[in-house]
Design goal:
Length: 122
């Protein structure tokens, strides 16, 4: 993995900002919930258990700003807004699924390591 730096050698702040926005519990769950589907706000809220209205709105705005989620508003009564993943969002979802596969593959190892660690701490 290549880390981009600016002229003073500091890590690219935009890359850090984007990573901080997508590496959150809610962003990962929203990207996973959207999958190949287009969902309305309330459908998405029902799929992402425990998320508040405010947090869903904030996270969707961040994901939209970063080009991960598309938001389509329709001029209807009542208003209708649909959300779906962009190409970049679908690629991110594949990465998330890879992390999930890795986690499931290594669960026994992780559980044993935690048991050893917790045993030492006592």
């Amino acid at each position: 993995m290549t880390v981009e730096t600016d002229s003073s050698g500091r890590i690219n702040s935009l890359a850090n900002e984007v990573f901080a926005g997508i590496a959150t519990k809610w962003a990962l769950l929203i990207v996973d919930a959207l999958g190949a589907e287009t969902l309305r706000f309330n459908q998405l809220r029902m799929q992402v258990e425990g998320i508040s209205h405010k947090m869903l709105a904030q996270t969707l705005r961040t994901l939209e700003r970063d080009g991960i989620v598309d938001r389509t508003a329709y001029a209807t009564v009542p208003p209708r807004v649909d959300y779906n993943l962009t190409g970049a969002g679908r690629e991110l979802q594949a990465t998330i699924h890879g992390i999930c596969r890795w986690t499931h593959h290594h669960l026994d190892h992780i559980q044993a390591a935690r048991h050893r660690f917790d045993g030492r701490a006592q």
